[in-house]
Structures are given as structure tokens and as C-alpha cells.
Specification:
- By secondary structure, this protein is mostly helical.
- The protein has 2 domains: 41 residues, no CATH class; 71 residues, no CATH class.
- 62% of the residues lie in helices and 0% in strands.
- The chain is built from 4 helices and no strands.
- It starts with 34 loop residues before the first helix and ends with a helix.
- About 4% of the residues have low confidence.
- The structure holds zinc ion.
- Zinc ion (ZN) binds next to loops.
- The site of zinc ion has 8 residues, from loops.
């Protein structure tokens, strides 16, 4: 069994993840099998599904994207300087423990940054 938030291996009787502190939800495998619950169980049990890592790469990718669209106009050093604060804010937002809130905040921030970049 692995933590659904950070992918840390968990003891059978743990109630909270010792790495990230998120409560452990035990998936009941005795439930009537449906396609969606099977997929969800498979994702939750995978040790590689570390959502925090995904958001880290998402932030870096977004920064690269900003650099790519601003560098031809402003020059590379200025583009990097411009993208860096956005990446840092996105990385900070990726530390939000609530998964759904984190998704909303990251999507909103990305959208706002994109508008700023396009209209400035
Ligand atoms: Zn965890």
C-alpha cells in the first residue's frame, strides 16, 4: 500500500502518511467492481504516481513555455528573469496539501500568468 499523495510506502495500520501527513484512505476491494473504481485503485496503488513530482514538472514546463514565447520578443535573459517568479509561485502553490484546491490554484495561476504574458 502506498500514499496517494506522495507515493510513500505505508504500514498496514497507519492512519496518516509519515512523509506528507495526509490521511490514508483504505480502498475497499470487496466493492462491486466497476470500471472507474478499478482504474482509481490501480492509480492509488502505484508507487510512481507522485502528484507532487508532477506539479513540480508542470511548473518547470510552464516556465519553459513562458520563456519560449517571450524570448524571441524580449531576448533570452529577460525572458528567463520574467518566467522565474512565475515558476517559483507555481512551485509554492504546488505545496498546498489539499489535492483539489492545489489543482484549482495552479490552473488559475497559470491562466492569470498567461494573460499577463500575452497582454504585456
Ligand atoms: Zn504521503
Amino acid at each position: 500500500m502506498f500514499c496517494i499523495e506522495c507515493g510513500t510506502k505505508l504500514e498496514a495500520n497507519q492512519k496518516f502518511c509519515k512523509n506528507c501527513g495526509s490521511p490514508i484512505k483504505i480502498s475497499k476491494e470487496t466493492k462491486t467492481p466497476s470500471k472507474t473504481s478499478n482504474v482509481r485503485t490501480a492509480v492509488n496503488n502505484s508507487p510512481k504516481s507522485s502528484s507532487k513530482k508532477n506539479y513540480f514538472f508542470y511548473s518547470l514546463g510552464f516556465g519553459l513555455f513562458i520563456i519560449l514565447i517571450t524570448a524571441p520578443v524580449w531576448g533570452l535573459p529577460y525572458a528567463i528573469g520574467y518566467a522565474l517568479p512565475y515558476v517559483l509561485i507555481l512551485l509554492a502553490a504546488s505545496l498546498i496539501p489539499n489535492k483539489n484546491l492545489r489543482k484549482v490554484v495552479l490552473a488559475l495561476l497559470s491562466f492569470i500568468f498567461l494573460l499577463i504574458v500575452i497582454f504585456s
